[in-house]
Amino acid sequence: MKKTLLAAVLGACVISAPAMAEETVKLRVVGQPLATGLIQKNVEQPFFETLQEKTGLPLEVNYKPLDTTGIKDVEELRVLKSGMFDLVSLRLSQVSRDEPTILGLDLVGLSPDYKSGRIVADKYSKVVDARLQERFNTKLLGVWPFGPQVLFCNHPIASLSDVKGLKVRVYDQNLAQFVESVGGIPVPLGFGDVHQSLALGVVDCAITGPSSANSAGWPEVTTHVLPLAFQMALNGYGVNLDTWNKFTPEQQVTLQGAFDTLVDDIWTYSEELFDDAGRCNVGATPCDTGTSYKLVGVQVSDSDKALLSNGVKEVSFPTWSEVCDKTNAQCSADWKKVLGESVGF
């Protein structure tokens, strides 16, 4: 009798285990803002809308762009930690206010091109992931770029030094310190406020990627563009660990693989957009993804490149490490261990 009862219990467990693994997981997803342009529209949103079909995982995905949720980008890590949303397309520069370790991915001058940016992202994302898991109950699924952030001005410029005395829109403290170091006046502004601020003279210049600027119409209210890559504007996908742990180990491998492919696709598409939008903004051809404008394209000089490169050791790293080490004692030491050699530390 006892043997029969035990066999029945074990049999019930075996039968119920697969059912538990196949229970539908509801993913409440916050994406990039609609205003950021083509990566959100053409790559990110279609990925989430077809994620269940492509992976075969038991998912129910509810995707909402950030600017339709009422949530501010600076709140994204708090939203993830609280469980209000399960997965967020993190705007890393903005959320670095809550976790300064993140900004080590994208210090001003660290990544002058896509190749170096990908190396930095692949190496340092492991450090960021460990920190997010520890403090925000969040797993980092991947890191990708909007692309090199360049300078748009409604004031004639011929080099980086010409921003002296000009008001320049910035989006994080690291960039603000660098702009200040070359004589500019940093003005923190959200992306959605920049077009009007340029038009009204609240700022003279602003920094963003060529494609985002094109999508938002910045060339309508500017005259010059200096294509010097200040930062890569890295972003990432974070998932709440409680949600992640609802999946079996095999399902986690499948889901991570889907995000690995997405991240690779965005790196490729971002570079294509950067090249094309760079042509569109100055009226060159081909211009396939944006609106053609007639900005003056300023030639990047060797002295501009040197000024930016030297800025890592002289401005952006010291500025960031002082802040980061206050909340994470190993912050700058971990960064130097992973990336220091590449910039001459």
UniProtKB/TrEMBL annotation:
Some GO term, biological process aspect, for this entry: which one? transmembrane transport
InterPro entries named in the record? DctP_fam (IPR018389), TRAP_DctP_sf (IPR038404)
Q: Which UniProt keywords apply?
A: Signal, Transport
The UniProt entry, under Pfam families, shows:
DctP (PF03480)
User: Which Gene3D superfamilies does the record associate with it?
Assistant: Bacterial extracellular solute-binding protein, family 7
Q: Which family does it belong to?
A: Belongs to the bacterial solute-binding protein 7 family.
| Designated name of the protein | ABC transporter substrate-binding protein
Species whose genome carries this gene? Marinobacterium aestuarii
